[in-house]
Specification:
Elements (H helix, E strand, L loop, with lengths): L4 H14 L36 H25 L3 H6 L1 H10 L2 H14 L8 H19 L1
Length: 143
């Protein structure tokens, strides 16, 4: 499915946030909280192309932990609260703020890789071979 450039971002965000297959938009991308399925149960998209690696943790830390750290430092210097205040506010905010968005961020990265046909430099021959084998397998299954 080839999307027009003006729809790519909205499709990537929708599929990533909801954990849907980036090809069909119907199947589940995840089989567990952060474990990507082997393939889409609706359209059969093979998720072996997906390689988000440490990206979700990096973005979670940069987007959420960094600003929250400023809040914690501001809270400490402005009010000098006792340590139990940090235990009740700062630590839960940082922990949940960094952990909860991991799945949507991972989904966003996987959908981005699929929609933009991202691949490592020099691996196009390997991917073409993989797609050819997959196409042959599907053709044999139809017969």
């Amino acid at each position: 499915m080839e999307l027009p450039p003006e729809r790519k971002l909205s499709w990537i965000l929708k599929c990533g946030w909801k954990g849907l297959c980036p090809r069909c938009g119907k199947g589940a991308m995840f089989r567990k909280w952060l474990k990507i399925s082997d393939q889409c149960e609706v359209c059969g998209l093979d998720y072996r192309f997906a390689s988000p690696d440490d990206g979700p943790a990096f973005f979670s830390l940069c987007i959420i932990a960094f600003p929250l750290t400023f809040f914690v430092v501001w809270l400490e210097f402005t009010f000098a609260p006792p340590y139990w205040v940090h235990l009740l506010t700062s630590f839960p905010l940082l922990a949940f703020g960094c952990v909860l968005p991991l799945q949507p961020i991972k989904g966003w990265l996987v959908a981005s890789q699929y929609v933009n046909k991202a691949q490592e430099a020099g691996t196009s021959k390997l991917w073409n071979d993989l797609h050819e084998r997959e196409k042959k397998r599907r053709d044999e299954e139809r017969i």
